[in-house]
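User
Please review the sequence:
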Amino acid sequence: MVRDLRSSLMALLFLIIFSSTSLSITSVEEFMVESTSLTVYRDGLVHVAQTIIVNETVPYFTLTLFSNLVENILVTDENQTVLDYEIVEQNITIFSLGCQSVFLEYDTTALTGKKAEVWTISFWTPYNLTLTLPQNSELMDFNNIPESIGIYDGKIQLTLLSGFWEINYVVSIVQPSQFEINNLNVTPEKVHAGEAVTISVTVTNNGDEAGSYTAVLRIGETVEGSKTVSLEGGQSTVVTFDVTKNVSGTYVVTIGDLTAKFTVLASPTFPFMELAAASFVAVGIFLLFYLKRLKGQKVEKILKSNPYLREEDKKVIMFIAEKGGKVFEAEIRSQFPDMPRTSLWRLVKRLEKFDIVKVKRVGLENQVELKK
C-alpha cells in the first residue's frame, strides 16, 4: 500500500515537472510587432511599414500580411541588411536568425475601393496601428471610434486599436503640378570667341501640388545642359546657364518651346599657335557636347517610354546619366542624402523591375547602370 502510494506521488511529481518545462519552452515568443503604420496615397495605394522585435535564437518566423496582393516588398534588419523571405498566400516567412529587429515594408491596393467620390479602406488588424490618409482628405464616417485623430504635416492621422476597421473618406480635387516657362533671355547677344553668354529662363508652377521640372538647354540640335528645380504650387524661380563658344557664328538657343539666339564674333587677331590650341579645345568641346547630347537623348527616351515614373525616379535616372550611365549605390545615397536608405533601395529595385537599370555586385558594393 505504502509502495503504491509512493509510486503515485513520484509519477505526479514527474508530470508536474514535465508540464512546467514544456510550458516554459512553448512560452518563448518568436517575435513581437512593435509598431505598424499604414499610409494611404491619393490613388488608393497603401504603404505598410512594420517594426518587429525578434528572438535572436529563432531562425525564422511567420507573419500575416494585410493582403495577399502585395508588391515592392523590402525586409531589412537593424543593420539595414536585406533579409530573405518566402510568401505563401497571405503569410510571409522571414529568415531572421541572429537579428534583433526586423523592418518590413510593402505596398498593396487591395485595402481600398472607390464608389463615386467616396473612398473606403477596410481591413482587420491584430495590432494597434496608425493610419495616415492622403493630403486634402476629409473623413466621412467609420465603423468604430478611433483611439485618436490628429493632423500631422497637413494629413489626417488616426490611431486605431486591433480589430476590424472600415473608414470612408473623400479627397479634395487639387491641380497637379503644372509648369510654365517664359522670359528666355540671352546676355549679351553678341560676344567674341571665348567670352561667356548667360542664358536664363523663368519657371513657374501653376498647379496646387509641389513638383519638379527639368529645364533642358539646347543650342542648335545639341543638348548643352539641364537643371532640375523643385517648386511648391504657385512658386517661380529663375534658371540660368553659362555658355562659352570659341567658334564664330550665330547660335540658336532653345528651352522648352522658347527660342532665342546670340552671335559669336571672330577674334581680331589670332596667332597660329593660339588658333591651333583653340581648334583643339573646340573639338574637345564638340565631342563633350556630343556625348552630353547622346546622354540627354537617352534620358528623354527613358522618360518618354515610362510616363508613370515618379519624380524621385526621374532624378535618380538623370543623376546616373550625368555620371556616364553607371554609378555605385553609395554615390546615389550621397547625392540624395534626404532619401532614407530603404526607400532608395526600393526605388532602385523598382527601376530594375521596369528594365530601366541593371544592378550588379562589384566587390563589396552594388553598381547601378542604365540599360542600353
Remarks:
- The helical segments are 2-26, 272-305, 311-322, 329-335, 341-353.
- The mean pLDDT is 84.
- Residues 249 and 276 are 18 Å apart (CA to CA).
